[in-house]
Amino acid sequence: MRLFFAINFSQETVARLAALRDELRAASSRGNFSRDENLHLTLAFLGECDAKQLAAAKSALDSLKVRPADVRVDRLGRFRRDGGDVWWAGAAENSALSETQRELTDKLTAAGFRLESRPYSPHITLARECVTGFQPRGITPFGETVRSVELMKSERVQGKLTYTAIHRKDACRGGV
């Protein structure tokens, strides 16, 4: 099964992200646009995992100190790709989020997972293979305080990419 760790958002934040996605879609000639229920912020991507790796991933999450983090979406950007770009909503720098992500990747690496080595860039994917005249830009910031991290399973269900939370760790009360 394909696994990743994510921060999922409230319905209000998802609605704001979906509005940005819809604005992008209206200005695009083509693209694969994220469904509302798939809008999330990835902390670490594991890829295909077996039962032993699933157990190790759950253990890493259980031992993680989850800190409440104010995630503020403040810009639209893209990763250029042949055949169409990946468009995203970017989250502002945040020490609590960065510490949680760094601690999680350290625990996963210690458990034997091979993770991406590029610097962490917190973002929410809005579209893939997108061809548009849209330009990256700043936006009026919005977001929420997030208080949990979830281990997610990625699979195709009736032809649709579906993400399902299979394990969760909440922040300690008071953030401690």
Largest sheet: number of strands, sense, barrel closure = 5 strands, antiparallel
- Molecular shape: globular
Strand content: over 45%
Mean pLDDT: 94
Distance between the termini: 33 Å
Structural class: alpha+beta
Structural summary, described in words:
The protein is α+β, with helices and mostly antiparallel strands and 176 residues long. It contains 3 helices and 9 strands; from the N terminus they run βαββαββαββββ. It has helices spanning 11-26, 51-62, 95-110, and strands spanning 2-8, 28-33, 40-48, 69-79, 85-91, 123-132, 137-146, 148-157, 160-170. A hairpin with a 5-residue loop joins β4 and β5 (85-91). The mean pLDDT is 94.
SSE blueprint and pairings:
Elements: E1 2-8, H1 11-26, E2 28-33, E3 40-48, H2 51-62, E4 69-79, E5 85-91, H3 95-110, E6 123-132, E7 137-146, E8 148-157, E9 160-170
Antiparallel strand pairs: 1-3, 1-8, 2-6, 4-5, 4-7, 5-6, 8-9
Brief overview, please?
The protein has three helices and nine strands, in the order E-H-E-E-H-E-E-H-E-E-E-E. It has helices at residues 11-26, 51-62, 95-110; strands spanning 2-8, 28-33, 40-48, 69-79, 85-91, 123-132, 137-146, 148-157, 160-170.
Which labels suit this protein?
alpha+beta, four-stranded antiparallel sheet, 3 helices, five-stranded antiparallel sheet, 176 residues
